[in-house]
Amino acid sequence: MPVSIDQIKELRAETGAGVMDCRQALTDANGDIDQARLLLREKGIATASKRADKATGQGLIHSYIHGGRIGVLVDLRCETDFVAKTEPFKELAHDIAMQIASMNPAGVSSDDLPDDDPDAVALLDQEFIRDGSQTIADRINDVIASIGERVEVARFTRYEMGE
Q1: What b/e readout covers 81-109, taking b as 16+ CB neighbours within 10 angstroms?
Q2: Are 122 and 114 in contact (CB under 8 A)?
């Protein structure tokens, strides 16, 4: 089944993946946009695992204040300063900061969780507040797939009035 330009544009707008990646995913999925989206996500996970040993020496510190009562600082890292200045990276930093403000995770990953709190949930394992069908780790992997660099949450701090 031939893939239309409109399908490629739609998939690219949704995923941020490259034109040729979108075209190939749609071709492999016989024009099914949902299946193509899954193929791109799988490719993103593969890209993320290939880049797992790359150093993340660049990035940014993003701040977010919610209602004047909750404040968050997020240290989001990437491989190059070029990527740190891109909109997808900045948007990811903002999304993660909002997630932290809203859900108050106990640590970045399950390795960071306190042993004395069995209900503690790691940031990377939390359901993304803007899209319940994916976790924060999935959201990060989507950005990795679109920008082609390793991205990691190095650390975060959450402040709340009265705590």
Answers
A1: eebbebeebeebbebbbbbbbeebbebbe
A2: no
The Cβ-side half-sphere exposure at 104, using a 13 Å CA radius, reads 7
Residue appearing with tokens 């193509």: 36
**Full set of structural domains in the chain with CATH:** 5-50 (1.10.8.10), 58-160 (3.30.479.20)
Predicted structure pTM score = 0.75
Report how far residue 92's alpha carbon sits from residue 97's, in angstroms, rounded to the nearest whole number.
9
3-state helix, strand, coil in the chain (%, to 5): 50, 20, 35
The per-residue DSSP string of 104-122 comes to --SBSSGGGS-TT-TT--B
For residue 5, the surrounding DSSP H or E stretch is helix 5-15
Give residue 135's pLDDT: 94
67, two tokens = 């209602």
119-129 per-position pLDDT tens digit: 899 999 999 99
Nearest to 74 by CA among 58, 97, 92, 56: 97
Which has the closest alpha carbon to 152: 52, 70, 40?
A: 52
**Model confidence pLDDT, tens digit, residues 14-50:** 776 777 888 888 889 888 888 888 887 777 766 666 6
